[in-house]
Protein 1
Amino acid sequence: MSLSHRQYKDAIYEQLARIGKAVSAPKRIELLEILSQGPRTVEALAKLADLSVANASQHLKALRTSRLVDAEKKGLFVEYRLADDSVGRYLLSTQTLADSRLAEIRQLTRDFLEARGALEPVNRDELMRRVREGEVIVLDVRPSEEYAAGHIPGAVSVPISELKARLKELPKGKEIVAYCRGPYCVMSIDAVELLRKRGYRAVRMEQGVLDWRARGWRIEAGTGKTKR
Amino acid sequence: MSLSHRQYKDAIYEQLARIGKAVSAPKRIELLEILSQGPRTVEALAKLADLSVANASQHLKALRTSRLVDAEKKGLFVEYRLADDSVGRYLLSTQTLADSRLAEIRQLTRDFLEARGALEPVNRDELMRRVREGEVIVLDVRPSEEYAAGHIPGAVSVPISELKARLKELPKGKEIVAYCRGPYCVMSIDAVELLRKRGYRAVRMEQGVLDWRARGWRIEAGTGKTKR
DNA sequence: TGATTACTTAACCAACTAATTGAATAATTA
DNA sequence: TAATTATTCAATTAGTTGGTTAAGTAATCA
């Protein structure tokens, strides 16, 4: 039995819509973005995305059936991860489209940044160049698991929750560039706010490892400390 | 009143999900793909996507509120078009992701091509290079409106519906490369089938203008015939 | 002016979805 | 072996969606 043109088209578009359905729920996008920073267990994901465990599990199941994530049982835990790099690139292209088409998203970001006096024009490419050239101290303020799963080469890991206590580790003279998960992640905003209050010269880089990797630049993994 | 972190995140992801919701219905993806070939009226879209006019209008309204398409009243007609190039690039990235993650979509295509004996390994990049260099006759078999809205430079427009009657316009010696809307479009498959049966050397190029433009290559517009 | 054409809207229904609650399963530890 | 922990599953509920039919609007034409 061979398919008619219409049946073939319908079948193709139904498959394409599986991707759309997967990213049609806000919480599923949030889960994907967290996973784009590295693998996580269900419990961790539920906590980070502010979901009940059962609910998170169901969303993850949906993401699994649309093949955007993989799950691997590790003892008592189940570790979820993005299925492959193409998923990260897709997330990035969704963000790009949303940024270019939805005035609301730009407005939200502007309002949020303004409310904490963090609005400043930064030349993204120039900032990224300086980060690549090692001209600044690069501060990764994400949770340490995410740092370990992959970070910008040369970056120092100081999770936002520990920043206050570990301030003295940072030299005061040099400029500090803080980054976290990406443009909509607020940890680096908080970090820069704190650093400036304490007299440091600090700016935020809104790109994260997802963007870094998409540009084909090298990502470093591991804690830096020798393991085992 | 300033937003809490959680409220800000929820608001951001809700906005991102608007894009996902827009492309979570197969018919809306089909409409977007048709529009990626050029502007169309509601009636034309309904017909091409096999929808009732009322239903098409409702899907288009959804696409309008998620800002992926624009509508412009032209006398008695309403002309819809993709809001901007970023929408086309997003469609392409969805296809790429679906192709890489969903075995079903690859299987569907393989089955469909196999059923009409059209399976053949073609080196895409090499084929595109030959098309760019003008080493082959390039045949655009889409409806003439789509050709006029934008086509591969040097391509000849012979809509699939007219191909049989206009075969004699094509020289028999040279190799013919037929293309249409993109990888899931079947018009070029039919064209190649017909051409071969009549003794032409013909192959299909699965990329369309969307892909061409995304690579930064030039697109030509107009009918070629002098208007007015 | 009234008819025609192209499109939108309203009302409706069946099907589906997200989130909650509580029970079930499966691996590990005591 | 029993208890604990991490996750999944099943059942329920409120809310949403896609599609149909029929009525409404707006521009054009006779």
Protein 2
Amino acid sequence: MDTRFYITTPIYYVNAEPHIGHAYTTIVADVMNRFHRLMGYETYFLTGTDEHGDKIVQAAEAAGTDPQTYVDRISRMFRHTWPKLNISNDHFIRTTDPAHMKVVQYILQKVYDAGDIYFDTYKGLYCIGCERFYTEKELVDGKCPDHDKPPVEREEANYFFRMSKYQDWLIEHIEKHPDFIRPERYRNEVLAFLREPLEDLCISRPKERLSWGVPLPFDDRYVTYVWFDALINYVSALGYPDGELFSTFWPVAQHVIAKDILKPHGIYWPTMLKAAGIEPYRHLNVHGYWKINEGKMSKSRGTVVRPLDLAPVYGVDAFRYFLMREMVFGLDANFSEEALIQRLNSDLANDLGNLFSRTLAMTAKYFQGTVPPFGNPVLPEDQALERQVQDAVSAYREEIPKWAFHKALMAVWEMINAANKYIDQTGPWELAKDPDKKGRLQRVLRTLLEVNKTTAVLVAPFMPQTAEKMLERLGVPVKALDLRLERDARWGSLVEGERVQKGAALFPRVDIKKWQQEKNAEERKRNVEKSDESQKTSDLITFQEFQRLDLRAGVVLEAERIPKSKKLLKLKVDIGEERQVVAGIAEHYAPEDLVGKQVVVVANLKPAKLMGVESQGMILAAHDGDVLKLVTTDAPVIPGGKVS
RNA sequence: GGCGGUGUAGCUCAGUCGGUUAGAGCAUGCGGCUCAUAUCCGCAGUGUCCGGGGUUCAAGUCCCUGCACCGCCA
């Protein structure tokens, strides 16, 4: 059996701060890394930041600084976030590391020498404002969607990677290795994409357009562009071509990504590896998105919960547990503070925390806080619980390698629940009353202590701090990363006579009723502040300024949905003249309900195109939380009537 | 427009190869216990399995079709 394990997260693009998506990917990788350590594997865990490209240059400019200063700052934010989440990475790579850049150049040269990189000129539609090419389809009405200007035809020469050459090889490889890309839905997506002919990949930018990158070794007028630079980190971090880490860990490489970067990892990267003469990675593991909603209790707007901020509030372990328990790997999941509190209260405080607490309390009370021997007699319920523990351990070992973390955790919790039930069945407080039953009482509490120890070991990859805390109180302190399942989850591995300590609750409960009240109070306060603010002088306008608005009453003549748009409706409105207006109200009004409705229109708004449809004005509406209500007149007025 | 996914209890979701009375957790109600963080244990429900049609002795499951939402591609 191969007992090495190499896991990577994507290197995160430093044009934004770390958010929950980054955190989940990284925590998943961390749990996997810790799990394999627990199983006795030799592991290597890599994360880092992607720091080249024009978006970085733009972001730096926007921040009023130079690219190097900017990427240093953002990269540092990532590097400092991970320890707070107890991430156990062995290395943090940056694409601006000189060593990485050298490997990128080495591989470029190698692929170039092999004839898989060629030079070609092409013509395209180029927007000078954006400094980029557009395809016909990206243009709106023949104009750049950002600058509203027609692009110019421009010829540019660039280097291309002959990706198409490896299409058939890749299809065959994916078909031969069913778990090359998993879960299956993403494998199918890649295969679907590969049914169409693959185009070659443009991998360069002329330096006059982009200087913030790795220069091509065979043409210093160019730098390499995005993916060629970024993906190579997975091998450059291991010291490719001849690093010892590379020969040890690359053969077992696994990547974790979110579904938005499936194509580069599922298609570009394997073909790049093939062209460079490197064997493909073992597995690409793809997860879904966290949909952030604020739960059904609070519909507050403008109070976007930043999930990462909740980690210190509720505890890193609770946060990690929630993410791993709540998401089925591969599928999307919902994130809300309520759901987090719910999990914390019921799974962590009530089930696990309370089991630990009552076990230790009884040990203190009946055995002066020392681990008792396995007394006698042994009854069937003892054996049943022991079996349950074995079942949980097997399920755990089986599910985690399949990335089914929720199932592994469910199995652990079945064991925890069984232990709680066992206490009820055996009633230690009754046994304690009868001195003749001391042996039985010993058996019961020792059994419980052992279950708690196994629990501590099993939750260690998910909640390392909790595991350490539990083990310390059980009198067998071990660092989470030094735990080994075979040794430390072995039944009877506690030390008889060792002192255990009750200590504070592992997971204090959160009073959800109180939390909701506070939340509501906050929200009310914010709303009051908001309306106060808007009445303050800061944004006052003069009457003359108001007069510049040409507001007119009108009546809706026609209304229809704009295809493919969720929000937009196309309206014909009579405001003395007929106007076509696009309004973002489709989520609130059905077209048929609008015809004949009195509305107020801003008539002198500069016309604009929305989804390719011209809008000559704007309909006024009032916001009420998530709800939107049209502004109308008290009674019908003649279309075109001035509103003032 | 093409391809794919999803739709199951109040909420979040499982449901294998078509096979008994459709399940779990949370939330709710009732009962029990007192070691424990007002926790734990037991019991109890509640379903148009998105709609319609078909195949079959038998359909949540397979086929066709419609609707809704989502994703990928164009």
Protein 3
Amino acid sequence: MSAPSHLDRAPSLADVLAQRLEQDIAQGHYMPGEKLPSEQQLATTYGVSRPIVREAIGRLKHDGLVTSRQGSGAFVAESGAASVFRLDVANFKDRQEIESLIELLMAIESSATELAAQRRTEQDLIALGHQLEAMQGAIERGDSGVDEDVAFHRAIVEATKNPFFMDLSTFLDRRVRHFIRTARANTAKLQTGHMMAVQDEHRNIFNAIRDKDAQGARHAAESHLKKAAQRLAIYMKPV
Amino acid sequence: MSAPSHLDRAPSLADVLAQRLEQDIAQGHYMPGEKLPSEQQLATTYGVSRPIVREAIGRLKHDGLVTSRQGSGAFVAESGAASVFRLDVANFKDRQEIESLIELLMAIESSATELAAQRRTEQDLIALGHQLEAMQGAIERGDSGVDEDVAFHRAIVEATKNPFFMDLSTFLDRRVRHFIRTARANTAKLQTGHMMAVQDEHRNIFNAIRDKDAQGARHAAESHLKKAAQRLAIYMKPV
DNA sequence: CATAACCAAGTTGCCTGACAAGATGGCAAC
DNA sequence: GTTGCCATCTTGTCAGGCAACTTGGTTATG
């Protein structure tokens, strides 16, 4: 709750005010549809200037929590209107939480793979095959193959034809990789033995998607992600 | 693209500038770690005042896309540092997209139910049982039972002990319910026959969680959500 | 010559004051 | 009683300025 992670960047006044207002709205202090106090009034009550209030309210507007009409005021949006899902970065402090995130990623990718098997077109299959070949080429060249790995998973979620799966998957994937990259000792390198195992698992997923075997695809994906998580675990600090 | 749905609220200058900068960062116009132009410079180049620039940059900071150091400047964050997943409200225009959203919700809840079966404590089971009884009471009283329904699902995701599942699930659930509530004809009312079916399906989920039957829990959840989606479909306009 | 202290310029964080545009409520005229 | 108008409030935007902080070069010192 208090310990600063990297840099204790002083929270700006707009930060704390936005958080305060967000909290007040979440706790029902301001009800949906209710008009919240004018900027001037908020400025005086919280002891800050109006631009700061504007900035704070601007963030709430950006997040879809309030809507404002010029000349009238700012109003609390209906409870389901929020348009962002925020992963609080401050939460990333221990192994427990990155594992929770990976768990979520696994859930998404498993379902995505299952859907991909049901819906893949011939073009999707071709794209998937190309990524598989690209990965093989990376192995033979001795490259890291990380980009090809990412591209393969991206091709899967694209085959779902569901934009939310695509967006959430890439978001979580980036987030997890970012965490791993910053947390692990830089000396550790991916081993080619690992890469060949990854390639085998990818091929299993590919075959299931090719055969439109939804259950098989889910199982292959779950197996792959489980093993990937184990491989990643060696890069993470012990709890 | 043009027809205003409710109110055609003119996008503020800070809105367009923030969107513009976000786009520039996403497209690699500014690379991670790079220092972006000073506020004064941005203000002159885009023809707006400095407070507007501050507000726009403030949003990017809030979303984790940039970090600023006083006296030094604002820098583009590393690509995986973004802390928000945004579901663009503008996308919700047709049935196709709400169905995609429901699909995502189903994926989350199915996995959550599976995890809940693996991890539920005795307390979780007791809480789940209470929600089941509350739902039964609502049926007998003739209430809508919506709140009890939500509470039951919430109890499931809480049993996962994974905060991301909890947050994402409640977020998506609210979002979907909000959409349904605004899209459906208000005359339509839930039928008690539906409620009893829901209660049966909930009981199946409960039993599987009680028995720590992960696979059974997933199947029960999938079946329940599939039927729930069908029941909801009658409230939605045809494509 | 190398190193350390120092200072000036640039940048962000924040404030005050002001004006324009749109909305709202009451007052006056009919 | 109804209608039209205007004073007032609120948001949107701008201008200018000061304090705190970082940075890089310059100068003084060992």
